Amino acid sequence: MAFARQDDDARRGGFRPGALLSDEKTRSITFQALTLAAVVALFWWLVDNTLANMAARSMSAGFDFLPVTAGFGIGFTLIEFREGDSYWRVFQVGVLNTLLVAVVSILFATVLGLIVGLARLSGNWIVATLARAYVEFLRNTPLLLQIIAWFFGVFNLLPRPRDSVEFGAFALNNRGFYMPSPVPEPAFDAVLAVFVVALGGAIALQVWAKRRREATGRLFPAVRVGLALVVLPPLAAHLALGQPLGWNIPALKGFNYDGGVSVPPAFCALIVALSVYTSCFIAEIVRSGVQSVSRGQREAAGALNLPNDWTMRLIILPQALRVIIPPLISQYLNVTKNSSLAIAIGFPDLVSVWMNTSLNQSGRAIPIVAMTMAFYCTVSLFVSLVMNVYNRSVQLKER
Amino acid sequence: MRQSLAILGAVGAVTLGVSLTPGAAMAQSTLESVKERGHLNCQVGLPTPGFYALDADGTWSGLDVDVCRAVSAAIWGDPDKVEYQSVTSAVRFTSLANGESDMLARTTTWTAVRDTQLGLDFTFVNFYDGQGFLVPVDSGITSALELDGATICVLTGTTTELNLADYFRANGMEMTPVTNENVNVLVETYLGGGCDAYTNDKSGLAARRSAFPDPTAHVILPQTVSKEPLGPVVRQGDDAWANIVRWVGYGMLEAEEFGVTQANVEEMAANPPGPGVARLLGVEGNIGEGMGLPADFMVSVLKAVGNYGEAYERHVGENTPIGIPRAGTLNALWTQGGIMYPPPFR
Ligand SMILES: N[C@@H](CCC(=O)N[C@@H](CS)C(=O)NCC(=O)O)C(=O)O
User: Which SMART domains is this protein grouped with (chain B) (predicted)?
Assistant: First the structure.
């Protein structure tokens, strides 16, 4: 903006040295420019000096190490990773592991937070007090401590593989949590196709029901019918095609369970600790959101003889959400950033495998720190963007 | 328009000016800044018996700690002017490179990448080691080749995790690494059964095991899967400082070769039995001069920590809980079948 204005100045008669003293606009533009120049110069000097010093010690600041073999193993990966894979692959593994922890923790924390938050508001004294104790105790203990406590106090103390706790096809031991994994046969594609069509139908049904309600006021149980539509036809197809979906069930073999999918104890400890800790903050956000809706709204709903769940769902929550969403966004961002504490218990998230192991093994501090910062920055901006769009849609629309 | 040009010009002039000034003003030498500070910042690892052990009243001791003490003695004639910096293995090189420590002595393996790409300089080898595996006796495992499919505890940021991956890849075996940068967390995990084996340099395994509640319940498997020449490291770019650390180390080996000990060093300095000892102890010539040290710096070193053999036996030898025999190993003097061979002090 400053630069646009100065073009006007130029057109009006060009630069007069005297204006530096007499004209406020010229003066402020000049000083802004000088400040900008100083900042740029300082930054330049820092970068230049760093590069020179690094070069003097034959340390490299470039990205040329990315295709080089990293040479170490990683204990838990979502994509295939072999010992001979490159640093770039390590980065991808780290990013995916961090995102997995963040997404799963956010899901659990939200559900748990909603339940505890509503329990805090319960008329039942015992329920409300328990919920309050939960919140006060857990949010006032450092998260790192909780992560370590869950790891050493619970998951590392589970029985060894030979004495695993088994429930059905699931197994839990001190090496991790083992689940069966689905093995689809070719015919399963047909079941999936039916499911996609049914899902489309269910969504169309919702839209239609809403339009009709707004136009005529007549109600249609779109949620229940929609659910049935999504579940029943695919199930029928599945049975008709002779259940074309096998399961790979983990079984004890050698040192440990083999087959299925599994997550290590560090992952379990991290998810539990992050979800529980964050749920306290979310509970408080939910409680304050609900309490922010004026009592009169509830009384008015009561006067209309609306059932309790309708009051909550149609009157209280839509108004409470406006208060809830903004602080919720920052909690979600916190979970993502807090997941970096994984390093304490050795879960291979981005900070652990990239900022720590890869940095140490390759010595490329600058590119590695820059890539890590870029990742966290991108995620933060993306989450706020999505949540802001959603927030705008639930804000009061003044008509 | 003219004004924008003027602004651009100003920005340009400032930037150009800065980039033309020399980047790093010729820095003070490490020896000068250490002397000025009055103590040596010596980096060690998290407490490890034998190499960098920490006792209840906060005193450090061990084979690597003796290198720090020897350097301090060489500079000031006093082995205790050292501030020990205990950091995890994952941040050791960053901490040295950014100047927090003047040197590190912490069972660090000399490798090409570390020596040429991380801005570090290795000085000498104070322990020749190799990587092994520690397993509980009751697991029944007797060979590393039986570890296919095992979960293995390993420190991150070490050569250990690289060798581990190499060894399993080379032998067509699978493993799941359980990693941590903190050796205490890892050992706790291993003892709790969170992994089937713990891998490290064999000396490190013996050291760690000596502090277990029941050391006899764990056994080191026979295979040695790597070469680990361990030694002190300094920042690259100050050769004079590297020389000090290197020659203090060689001096301790040369002293053992000549039979100069902590007990007899004063007497030998007063009455050198031959020209070799006379040169080592600064009675003849002045080797310290080229390093900015007093001529008799090795007398101070030997009075403080003794020769290499004495330091070895005191901290990790057969009569310690760690109990690593020296005779017949690489760590014996070259005159006794080992490869400890200090270049001549002359
Ligand atoms: N020699 C390897 C590994 C060094 C190492 O792991 N040292 C063992 C003792 S020999 C240890 O437990 N260190 C503890 C620590 O560094 O905090 C390397 O240089 O990367």
Answer: PBPb
d(CA A173, CA A171): 7
Tell me the CA distances in angstroms from A29 to A22, A390, B5, B171, B260, one per residue in order.
13, 39, 13, 69, 76
Asked if domains B32-128+230-336 and B130-227 share a fold, the reply is yes
Give dist(CA B331, CA A32) in Å, integer. Answer: 66
**Average pLDDT estimate for A46-61:** 79
Higher pLDDT, A399 or A149: A149
Q: Is A80 on the interface with B (CB under 8 A)?
A: no
Model confidence over B247-304: pLDDT tens digits? 999 999 999 999 999 999 999 999 999 999 999 999 999 999 999 999 999 999 999 9
Instruction: Determine the residue among A59, A72, A158, A253 to mutate to test chain B binding: the one whose Cβ has the most chain B Cβ atoms within 10 Å.
Output: A72
Q: What CATH number does domain B32-128+230-336 carry, 3.40.190.10, 3.40.1110.10, 2.30.40.10, 3.40.630.30?
A: 3.40.190.10
Its pTM stands at 0.82
Contacts of A9 in chain B (CB under 8 A): 3
Measured between alpha carbons, how far is A315 from A321 in angstroms, rounded to an integer? 11
A87-142+265-394: CATH superfamily:
MetI-like (1.10.3720.10)
pLDDT of residue A326: 86
Residues B5-14 have a mean pLDDT of 39
Specify the CATH class of B130-227 in words: alpha beta
